[in-house]
Design brief:
By secondary structure, the protein is of the alpha+beta class. The protein contains 24 helices and 25 strands. The protein folds into 5 domains: 8-67, Helix hairpin bin (Helix Hairpins, Orthogonal Bundle); 102-325, D-amino Acid Aminotransferase, Chain A, domain 1 (2-Layer Sandwich), CATH 3.30.470.30; 330-412, Nucleic acid-binding proteins (OB fold (Dihydrolipoamide Acetyltransferase, E2P)); 426-592, DNA polymerase, domain 1 (Orthogonal Bundle); 607-680, BRCT domain (Rossmann fold, 3-Layer(aba) Sandwich), CATH 3.40.50. The strands form 6 sheets. Strands 13, 14, 15, 16, 17, 18 and 19 form a 7-stranded antiparallel β-sheet that branches. Strands 2-12-11-3-10 form a 5-stranded mixed β-sheet. A 5-stranded mixed β-sheet has the order 5-4-7-8-9. A hairpin with a 2-residue loop joins β4 and β5 (138-144). α1 packs antiparallel against α2 and α3 (95-109) runs antiparallel to α9 (274-287). The structure holds 2-(butylsulfanyl)adenosine. The site of 2-(butylsulfanyl)adenosine has 16 residues, from β3, β8 and β12.
Length: 684
């Protein structure tokens, strides 16, 4: 339906309505992770707002949701003075030091040592602290902590972060405080950090050492468009200056901030006494790797705000709060040697062999150097003293070389010219050296391990050791060979007896019955992870369809980019790969796709008749479109006709449609339906 033109006044009202709606749905989506409308409906609201703002540019304000995209770059950052200084926290390195803090608090308050203070406990996020000022509920200014007194003005950058509300969400009848400064941490999820680094590596740009640096580097950009292109998050942990509102406890502050539309520090705990604090400290250190954000400890704050005043602050840090730091995940050690590891895609990775050192509770003796560009960037040599870092489950890596400690006996790392496993000549691909011999045992071992892994074909008992032996003993020359193994073959492997051989054969047999998504993932196509594999399986429904897909077919799938499309096509163009797949299918592997979900468009199942000339396309082109989107183009109007599209100088069909009461639309409405249909099939 064509929208009627709004008057200036009506447009202003609708614009305000739309902004409120969009802000609310943003909050549902980004903060609560619980959207209540579809993406398409959200896009529709956004489009309506953009159109109205285009028609009435005088109503555009910097806080319109359409302005989140990033403002023009600046020459330099301005400075912002914090009304209340942004202090730092004192550290407690272990449980004893946390208990010492509790005793200090009680002593200062004149309380007995067995008193139980109420503490608010929160995660300590490893990011960049930031203050956001709201005047009358409107996002007005954002600044970094800086030296605590003055920070950098990052207003246009912060505006691009979706979890920073542009307007505080207010309850019915609630008036916004005249001013409130919300404080929190700008952070990057571990997964987004890894993705970003992968992209930077591909582009041959410098990677970030950790999510914290990535968050800081992304926020402190003179060009806010760069910030907008990075996935940042804001988690609030408190408040600075405020007026026109009262709070009794820190907990209350966090709850209010949450109601206003922010993500707040979670999981948090209100602890009665230091023992409960310690419990939380232990729990969080244990959970640390399972959280989507990087933490470097917990923060413990006296909950009662009236006690904050009594306890006061030192020049650097408050006496009412402390950071309980986790075991450090960076340590220094020495590089004994560098070896070159060949992965399942043939990429040769330099790996540093370290003097073993304990990092965050785990003994580390190897660290990845990623690639030879990274070796160059770090300027690392064998024998160097280095700073090693372990972040979560990620393989430890080297952050920097401590060049001051060089003795002169260090040896350079020379990139190999030939594959250390099969001897084939290596090829350079961007920052990487690659072995392109597909029957290279190193590649095969890796491919086999990946193929059998839990999230791929899930073959129990086919782990690293077995995969390596199968290749080394020549029992497996390509992945498909596992489906032709006999009991006698398996008995040749170390540690295998009758029973274990049978178990493995059963597991291999069982894996033949699998889903298409798992099978695609198991193939180990470059750039095709689990998620992409599922997208492909859902879209193509059968392996056959996927194998036939052109680059264009692949690009039509939302979420598949040119690089992935290219590598999928290349993979299936390689005759050896197709041969191996055929060999598996012959052995009885049956990857099953779900029946393809019917995609519905506004044309699905509709009989459509055209009359009169269209201005934007020929009749045949229009009919083709109807057909493409699941409709049935027909030539004459009857009671069965669902829709008549009327162009210029329509003929008798128009009259007949009027007589029969068939729905009639004009060209503009038809084009709108086409747009909607394109969106429905993922083309829009
Ligand atoms: S409260 C007086 N709570 O840690 C300072 N800080 O070392 C009050 N941080 O600058 C800070 N998570 O950037 C607080 N849940 C949390 C935090 C947190 C991370 C950062 C913050 C602060 C630094 C202090």
């Amino acid at each position: 339906m064509a929208k009627k033109k709004l008057s200036r006044e009506e447009a202003k009202k609708r614009i305000e309505e739309l902004r409120e709606l969009i802000n609310y749905h943003n909050y549902r989506y980004y903060v609560l992770n619980d959207p209540v409308i579809s993406d398409a409906e959200y896009d529709e609201l956004m489009r309506e707002l953009m159109e109205l703002e285009q028609q009435f540019p005088e109503f555009i304000t910097p806080n319109s949701p359409t302005q989140r995209v990033g403002a023009p770059p600046r020459e330099e950052f301005g400075t912002v003075e914090h009304r209340v200084p942004m202090l730092s926290l004192q550290d407690a390195r272990n449980e004893d030091e946390l208990r010492e803090f509790d005793r200090r608090v009680k002593r200062a308050l004149g309380l007995p040592m067995d008193a139980k203070i109420e503490y608010a406990c929160e995660p300590k996020f490893d990011g960049l602290s930031c203050e956001i000022t709201y005047i009358n509920g409107e996002f007005t200014q954002a600044s970094t902590r800086g030296d605590g007194i003055r920070g950098e003005d990052v207003t246009p950058n912060a505006r691009t972060i979706k979890t920073i509300p542009l307007k505080l969400i207010l309850k019915k009848g609630e008036t916004p405080p005249p001013r409130v400064d919300i404080r929190g941490e700008v952070i990057m999820k571990k997964s987004d950090f890894e993705k970003l680094n992968e992209e930077l590596l591909k582009k041959g740009e410098k990677v970030f050492a950790n999510p914290r640096n990535a968050a800081a580097g992304s926020l402190r950009q003179l060009d806010p468009n760069v910030t907008a292109s990075r996935k940042l998050d804001f988690i609030s942990w408190g408040i600075g200056y405020y007026e026109g509102i009262e709070f009794k406890t820190h907990w209350e502050v966090l709850e209010k901030i949450g109601e206003w539309g922010f993500k707040t520090a979670q999981p948090r705990k209100l602890a009665k006494g230091i023992d409960e604090v310690i419990e939380y400290y232990r729990e969080m250190e244990e959970k640390r790797d399972n959280l989507e954000y990087e933490l470097d400890g917990i923060v413990v704050k006296v909950n009662d705000l009236s006690l904050w005043e009594k306890l006061g602050t030192t020049t650097r840090s408050p006496r009412y709060a402390i950071a309980g730091k986790f075991k450090p995940r960076q340590r220094t050690t020495r590089i004994k040697d560098v070896v070159f590891q060949v992965g399942r895609t043939g990429i040769v990775t330099p790996v540093a062999i370290l003097e073993p050192v304990e990092v965050g509770g785990v003994i580390v003796s190897r660290a990845t150097l990623h690639n030879f560009d990274e070796v160059k960037r770090l300027g690392v040599m064998i024998g160097d003293k280095v700073l090693v870092q372990r972040a979560g489950d990620v393989i430890p890596d080297i952050v920097k070389v401590i060049k001051e400690e060089r003795t002169g006996n260090e040896k350079p790392i020379v990139p190999p010219t030939h594959c250390p496993v099969c001897g084939a000549e290596l090829v350079r691909e961007g920052a990487y050296l690659k072995c392109i011999n597909i029957s290279c045992p190193a590649r095969l071992k890796g491919a086999l391990r990946h193929f059998a892994s839990r999230r791929a074909m899930d073959i129990e008992g086919l782990g690293e050791k077995v995969a390596d032996q199968l290749v080394e003993k020549g029992l497996v020359k390509d992945v498909a060979d596992i489906y032709y193994l006999t009991k006698e073959d398996l008995l040749k492997l170390e540690g295998f007896a009758d029973k274990s051989a049978e178990n493995l054969l059963n597991a291999i047999e069982k894996s033949k019955d699998t889903t298409l998504a798992r099978f695609i993932y198991a193939l180990g196509i470059p750039n095709v992870g689990e998620y992409t594999a599922k997208l492909l399986a859902d879209h193509f429904g059968t392996l056959e369809n996927l194998m036939k897909a052109s680059k264009l077919d692949l690009l039509s799938i939302p979420g598949i980019g040119p690089e992935t499309a290219e590598s999928v096509v290349k993979f299936f163009q390689e005759p050896r790969n197709v041969e191996v797949i055929q060999k598996m299918l012959k052995a009885g592997v049956k990857p099953k796709g779900k029946p393809k979900e019917e995609v519905k468009t506004p044309f699905t199942g509709k009989r459509v008749v055209f009359t009169g000339a269209l201005s934007s396309m020929s009749r045949d082109e229009a009919k083709e479109l109807v057909e493409k989107f699941g409709g049935i183009p027909t030539n004459s109007v009857s009671r069965n006709t669902d829709l008549v599209v009327v162009g210029e100088n329509p003929g008798s069909k128009y009259q007949r449609a009027l007589q029969l009461g068939v729905k009639i639309i004009n060209e503009e409405e038809f084009l709108k339906m086409v747009e909607e249909a394109k969106k429905a099939i993922g083309e829009g």
